[in-house]
Design brief:
With about 425 residues, the protein is an alpha+beta fold. The chain has two domains: about 200 residues, 3-Layer(bba) Sandwich (FAD/NAD(P)-binding domain); about 150 residues, D-Amino Acid Oxidase, subunit A, domain 2 (D-Amino Acid Oxidase, Chain A, domain 2, 2-Layer Sandwich), CATH 3.30.9. Strand 11 and strand 12 form a beta hairpin. The radius of gyration is 21 Å and the shape is globular. The chain contains nine helices and 20 strands. The N terminus is likely disordered. The longest helix is centred in the N-terminal third of the chain and has 21 residues.
C-alpha cells in the first residue's frame, strides 16, 4: 500500500514535536525576548536555526504560520546536485551534499541521501555548447569529477534512456536525492536537541525598529511582540509577503511545481540508476519506490500559490518523458501532487541584509532564500544565513553579490541567471 506524502509528513510532525513553545502551557504568556528570531520553519529556516544555535546565538525562536515543514519542504522531489550554473551554486551544492552525507553521525538522524548520479541532458547543439562551457566552469570551481558524456555514453550510463533526441550531457556520480519528509524529521529532531523554541501557528506580522528606523528592536507576531536585535527572514514561496510585512520589496515569486510517480517496473527495480534533467524543458526524473518519479514547472502559467493538478500539462510532460524513456509509455500513474515552489528572477539565492526600497538598511535583519532549491542548496543557504545573522560574515561563499541590492525597482537582477534551473514564470513586480 502506498502511503501519501502528506500522511508521512503528519506522522513526522506528530512523532517529532520539536520543542513547540517549550515550557509553556495553554494560557501562559509567550517568552517575549530572544537573541535571534527566525521566520519560517521550512528547510532553510529549520537548519539555519540549528546552525545559529551551534554558533552561540543564544535563545533562538522560530516562527511558523502553519506547522513545521508543512509547505514545499515536505512536498519536494528532493533532487540534490553540485552541478550548479555558477561557482557559488556549485559551492552551495557541494557543501549541502557533504552535509547530508555526515548528517547521521552529527545529529543522529539523516535526510535519506541516496547517491544515484545526475545527467543533465543537451537536446540541441547550442545546449551542448553551453553545457560544455558549464563543465569547464565547474572544473574551475573545484568540481573535478563532473564530466561530459556523448549520446552513446549517456545511454550506456542510464540504461533506460533512449538513444534519440539528445546529444548526451554533463554527468556527476556524486549527485543524488534526499527524502523530503525524512529531511523535515531530521531538522525537527536537530532543533529539539539544540533547544530551539518553535512557535507554530504564529504568523509573523512585522518588525519593530529603533526611532530612526536603522536597527531592528523586535518582531510583531499574532501572539505578541518578541524583543530581539537579530532577525532572519525566510519563507520560501511566501517570502515576498513576509518581506512586505517588514517594509521590504523582495522579488521572490511562487509557482506551481508538479511531481508524479509512475507504477513499478522491472527496468527500475535496481539499486542505482542516474537521475536525468531535460534542462530545456524543465523536466527531470529519478528512481522512486521501484517506479519512476518525474517533475516539472510550466513557465507559461500565471505565477502564484497553486496546489491543483494541471492535467493538460501532465499529459504534455508525460509524452515528452516517454520520448526519452520509452518504457514509461504504458505505465500507470501511482501518485501525483502539486506544491507551490519559490524562485527568484535570476534563479540565484537571496542572502544578505534587509534593504528598504529607499536603499536604507535595517541593521540586524538578514534575508535568506534558496530560490526554489531548498533540498539542493538548503543546508548551504542555511549555513550562510546563520553565519550572516550571528557573525555578519561567512566563509562558505562570497555572499556580497547575493543581497537585495542586486535588483532594480522592477525586480531585475544585475547578475546573469544560474543556467541550471527550472524555467519559472517571470516574477511580477
Amino acid at each position: 500500500m502506498t502511503v501519501p506524502r502528506d500522511s508521512i509528513r503528519r506522522h513526522v510532525i506528530a512523532t517529532y514535536p520539536l520543542a513547540r513553545n517549550r515550557g509553556q502551557h495553554v494560557g501562559e504568556r509567550m517568552t517575549d525576548r530572544a537573541d535571534l528570531v527566525v521566520v519560517g520553519a521550512g528547510t532553510v529556516g529549520g537548519w539555519a536555526s540549528v546552525f545559529a544555535a551551534e554558533a552561540g546565538a543564544g535563545h533562538v525562536v522560530v516562527l511558523e504560520r502553519g506547522l513545521a515543514g508543512d509547505g514545499a519542504s515536505s512536498r519536494a522531489a528532493g533532487i540534490v546536485r553540485a552541478q550548479g550554473g555558477t561557482p557559488a551554486t556549485v559551492a552551495l551544492g557541494r557543501w549541502s551534499i557533504d552535509f547530508y552525507r555526515g548528517q547521521a553521525e552529527t545529529y543522529g538522524a539523516d535526510s535519506g541521501f541516496r547517491e544515484l548520479g545526475y545527467l543533465i541532458l543537451a537536446a540541441t547543439e547550442e545546449d551542448e555548447r553551453l553545457g560544455r562551457e558549464r563543465v569547464a566552469m565547474q572544473h574551475g570551481a573545484g568540481l573535478a569529477d563532473v564530466r561530459w558524456l556523448d549520446a552513446a555514453e549517456a545511454v550506456a550510463t542510464v540504461g533506460t534512456l533512449s538513444p534519440h533526441g539528445h546529444r548526451g550531457g554533463s554527468f556527476r556520480d556524486g549527485d543524488g536525492h534526499i527524502d523530503p519528509p525524512r529531511n523535515v524529521r531530521a531538522y525537527s529532531m536537530a532543533m529539539q536537541a539544540a533547544g530551539i523554541e518553535l512557535r507554530e501557528r504564529t504568523p509573523f506580522a512585522g518588525l519593530r525598529t529603533s526611532d530612526d528606523g536603522a536597527r531592528v528592536t523586535g518582531v510583531e507576531t499574532s501572539g505578541g511582540v518578541i524583543e530581539t536585535e537579530r532577525v532572519l527572514l525566510t519563507g520560501g514561496p511566501s517570502l515576498r509577503s513576509v518581506g512586505s510585512l517588514a517594509g521590504l520589496r523582495i522579488p521572490a515569486g511562487a509557482a506551481r511545481h508538479t511531481v508524479a510517480v509512475l507504477e513499478p517496473h522491472e527496468a527500475f527495480a535496481v539499486e542505482r540508476m542516474p537521475m536525468v534533467f531535460d534542462l530545456g524543458a524543465g523536466l527531470y526524473w529519478r528512481l522512486e519506490e521501484g517506479g519512476l518519479l518525474f517533475g516539472w514547472s510550466d513557465p507559461d502559467e500565471t505565477p502564484g500559490q497553486a496546489r491543483e493538478i494541471d492535467w493538460a500539462a501532465y499529459e504534455r510532460y508525460r509524452e515528452r518523458l516517454a520520448g526519452y524513456v520509452p518504457v514509461t509509455l504504458d505505465l500507470g500513474l501511482r501518485k501525483i501532487w502539486a506544491a507551490t515552489i519559490d524562485y527568484t528572477p535570476d534563479h540565484l539565492p537571496i542572502l544578505g541584509p534587509a534593504i528598504r526600497p529607499d536603499g536604507s538598511v535595517i541593521d540586524g535583519v538578514t534575508i535568506a532564500s534558496a530560490a526554489g532549491h531548498g533540498m539542493m542548496w538548503g543546508p548551504g543557504v542555511a549555513r550562510v544565513a546563520a553565519d550572516l545573522a550571528v557573525h555578519g560574515a561567512t566563509s562558505l561563499i562570497d555572499a556580497s553579490d547575493y543581497g537585495l541590492d542586486r535588483f532594480d525597482e522592477q525586480g531585475r537582477s544585475r547578475l546573469a541567471p544560474d543556467s541550471v534551473a527550472l524555467p519559472f514564470p517571470v516574477v511580477a513586480d
